[in-house]
């Protein structure tokens, strides 16, 4: 078992040992430890610490769980000169992320028609295994624009408002995307998947603000009690999966070429400064932009669905974007290390950026509050809105948790759901759920997840994000 | 494989595929009396995870030809290629025939159906087969493989 040394109530260190180039740093409470130690996620944190050019510790957020290669909930920074970039440190679903929309509506104004709204969302947004759009396919020049410009392309094409862009991480467009480095295979997989939710844990959720922890911050984020909100959680679909897969093959060769010793094949990587590393980052940026455009288009259909069901115009609905964050991504960012600013490649795999007030990459609207951080929970409980902090910037390269984290395998969850009618159980709790298949809903039951409140409590108390509000679901569409 | 029969008859020594516990994602333990059979079973496991295998008609045929860096990578590439076929035109295999398997290359004929949500139940989506804990090892009279999938 991996050795752990307690630092304080919320920090645990994996001491540097063997081939590790740095220590591991795990954020969690004492109560969470036994479940984290059940699987191999801590070993994965230690494995990442062996990779060349790692700067600072190999970190894990409290929602850490066993991934493939890198643990999910992992954060690792690498030096641009002698460090590496690894597709496994981003994941297959490049720029999987979450966006939160607020409305001007109160809970009592929408309760009449939640079922109608959920059904409308379900018919407007293709979801589930193999979901694709019948109405349009991306081709040639347009496809390249999507990969280059992300949400900016979507807004230009009529999906949303220009003001949306200021409320998306990186403005909804990662610079340096090169569509020519995205394979034809990847383009084929993505051509009719733009504007689709996909399956698994992806969802669109309509909910309300159920509790406010920090009234001034909530007000600045435009949130008030009993306000109706909508969350979109999805990523880059088959296109992103294929980009990851394509470059894992490249990196398997590159690791050998550059003499990088791998404790697990899935950690394969290349120096950031190598052609392989640069090409991956440019292709990854394309996939990330595809994901930004995807969430932007889905947002457009969320708005249309509200307008249709409640017969209200956009101005009265006020469905504005609070923020959109990526939680599977590698970003080139400047961070101060031992007093010196350095450009680093930050891998966040199942972790969210959490920049503090005043940071230049935080949009104007949130300069005083810090960047909004959106932490979705499971479909039966609640989600949280937080903001980034100075402490996160200093300690975790401006990163925090991303969700609840599973505690049951999908197999166990299905067993637990056997003989029950989960949709009805949730309806009795006042949550309308529509899913493309029963299996996904059964696999995503609340009990299969850790209570996200515990995860959020740890990051809040450790100071690497600050709680603002809690949202409860009213209606969910699942893939 | 229906559970009633499994309870009545003695359980077969090796099931062609089964899920093994892995918190975040899904892992398969695959078995085949030969390597081609192992690969065929892997294909069936994939279709059976996405939908109900029995709901697929034998309506379409796809020829597959792949070359990888080694045999284990070939298994991952085979599964990911089947996912590619599914993502691009909805094709899901029902019958898998590995025509040749030499080292790190294979040719196969896959017979199956185009996924249609109105006829085929939507089960668990798969993003990719991964190299994590990937192995193919001889076992008893055949071969056993472990593959972890990202969902």
Q: Mean pLDDT of chain B, rounded to whole units?
A: 90
End-to-end gap of chain B: 24 Å
What would CATH call the class of chain A?
Answer: Alpha Beta
What is the correct CATH architecture of chain B?
A: 3-Layer(bab) Sandwich
Q: What is the percent of helical residues of chain B? A: 25-40%
> Any low-confidence stretches of chain A, pLDDT <50, length ≥5?
none
**Beta-strand residue fraction of chain B:** 35-45%
CATH topology of chain A: tRNA-splicing ligase RtcB
Rounded to the nearest angstrom, the radius of gyration of chain B is: 15 Å
Based on CA atoms alone, the radius of gyration of chain A comes out at 21 Å
CATH architecture of chain A: Alpha-Beta Complex
Largest sheet of chain A: 8 strands, mixed
Q: What is the CATH top level name of chain B?
A: Alpha Beta
Could you estimate the helical fraction of the residues of chain A in percent?
Answer: 25-40%
Distance N terminus to C terminus of chain A?
A: 37 Å
| Subunit arrangement of the protein | heterodimer
Number of strands of chain A: 19
Largest inter-chain contact set: A-B, 50 and 35 residues
Describe this structure as you would to a colleague.
The complex is a heterodimer of chains A (479) and B (151). Chain A contains 17 helices and 19 strands. Chain A has a single domain, classed as Alpha-Beta Complex (tRNA-splicing ligase RtcB), CATH 3.90.1860. Chain A is 33% helix and 26% strand. In chain A, the strands form four sheets. In chain A, strands 7, 8, 9, 11, 15, 16, 18 and 19 form an eight-stranded mixed beta sheet that branches. A seven-stranded mixed beta sheet of chain A has the order 1-2-3-4-5-13-12, with helices on both faces. Chain A has 479 residues and is an alpha+beta fold. Chain A starts with a strand and ends with a strand. With 151 residues, chain B is α+β, with helices and mostly antiparallel strands. Chain B is 27% helix and 38% strand. In chain B, the strands form two sheets. In chain B, strands 1, 2, 6, 7 and 8 form a five-stranded antiparallel beta sheet that branches. Chain B has a three-stranded antiparallel beta sheet with strand order 3-5-4. The N terminus of chain B is likely disordered. In chain B, β1 and β2 form a beta hairpin. Chain B has one domain: Archease, Possible Chaperone, Chain: A, domain 1, CATH 3.55.10.10. The chains are: A alpha+beta (479), B alpha+beta (151). At the A-B interface, β4, α8, α10, α14 and α16 of A face α3 of B.
């Amino acid at each position: 078992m991996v050795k752990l040394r307690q630092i304080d109530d919320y920090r645990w260190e994996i001491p540097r040992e063997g081939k590790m180039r740095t220590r591991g740093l795990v954020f969690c409470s004492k109560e969470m430890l036994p479940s984290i130690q059940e699987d191999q996620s801590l070993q994965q944190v230690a494995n990442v610490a062996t990779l060349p050019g790692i700067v600072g510790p190999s970190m894990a957020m409290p929602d850490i769980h066993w991934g493939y290669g890198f643990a999910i909930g992992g954060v690792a920074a690498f030096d641009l000169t002698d460090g590496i970039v690894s597709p496994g440190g981003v994941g297959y679903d490049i720029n999987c992320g979450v966006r939160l929309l607020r409305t001007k509506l109160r809970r009592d104004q929408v309760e009449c028609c939640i079922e109608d709204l959920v059904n409308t969302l379900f018919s407007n947004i293709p979801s589930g295994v193999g979901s694709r759009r019948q109405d349009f396919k991306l081709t040639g020049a347009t496809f390249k624009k999507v990969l280059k410009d992300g949400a900016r392309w979507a807004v230009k094409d009529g999906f949303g408002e220009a003001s949306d862009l200021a409320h998306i991480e990186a403005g909804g467009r990662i610079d340096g995307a090169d569509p020519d480095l995205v394979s034809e295979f990847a383009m084929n997989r993505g051509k009719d998947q733009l504007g689709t939710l996909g399956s698994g844990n992806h969802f669109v959720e309509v909910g309300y603000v159920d509790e406010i922890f920090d009234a001034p911050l909530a007000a600045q984020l435009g949130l008030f009690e009993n306000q109706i909100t909508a969350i979109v959680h999805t990523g880059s679909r088959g296109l992103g999966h294929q980009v990851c897969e394509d470059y894992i093959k490249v990196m398997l060769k590159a690791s050998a070429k550059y003499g990088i010793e791998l404790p697990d094949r899935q950690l394969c990587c290349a120096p950031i400064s190598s052609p392989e590393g640069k090409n991956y980052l440019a292709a990854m940026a394309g996939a990330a932009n595809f994901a930004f455009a995807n969430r932007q288009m889905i947002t457009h259909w969320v708005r249309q669905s509200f307008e249709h069901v409640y017969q209200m115009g956009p101005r009265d609905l006020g469905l504005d974007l609070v923020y959109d964050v990526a939680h599977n991504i590698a970003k080139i960012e400047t961070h101060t290390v031992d007093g010196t600013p350095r450009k680093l490649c930050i891998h966040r795999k199942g972790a969210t950026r959490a920049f503090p007030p005043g940071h230049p990459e935080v949009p104007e609207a949130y300069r005083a509050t810090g960047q909004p951080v959106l932490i979705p929970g499971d479909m039966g409980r609640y989600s949280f809105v937080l903001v980034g902090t100075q402490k996160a910037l200093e300690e975790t390269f401006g990163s925090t948790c991303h969700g609840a984290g599973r505690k049951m395998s999908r197999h166990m969850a299905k067993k637990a759901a056997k003989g029950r009618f989960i949709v009805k159980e949730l309806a009795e709790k006042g949550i309308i759920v529509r899913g493309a298949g029963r299996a996904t809903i059964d696999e995503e039951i609340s009990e299969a997840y850790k209570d996200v409140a515990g995860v959020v409590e740890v990051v809040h108390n450790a100071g690497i994000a600050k709680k603002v509000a809690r949202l409860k679901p009213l209606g969910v569409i699942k893939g | 494989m229906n559970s009633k029969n499994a309870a009545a008859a003695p359980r077969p020594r090796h099931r062609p595929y089964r899920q093994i516990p892995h918190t975040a994602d899904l892992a398969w333990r695959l078995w085949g009396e030969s390597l081609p059979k192992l690969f065929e079973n892997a294909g069936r496991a994939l279709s059976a995870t996405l939908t109900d295998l029995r709901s697929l008609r034998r309506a379409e045929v796809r020829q597959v030809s792949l070359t990888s860096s080694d045999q284990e990578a070939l298994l991952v590439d085979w599964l990911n290629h089947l996912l590619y076929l599914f993502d691009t035109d909805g094709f899901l295999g029902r019958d898998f025939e590995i025509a040749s398997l030499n080292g790190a290359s294979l040719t196969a004929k896959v017979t199956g159906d185009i996924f249609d949500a109105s006829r085929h139940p939507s089960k668990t989506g798969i993003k990719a087969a991964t190299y994590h804990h990937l192995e193919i090892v001889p076992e008893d009279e055949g071969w056993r493989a472990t593959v972890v999938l990202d969902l």
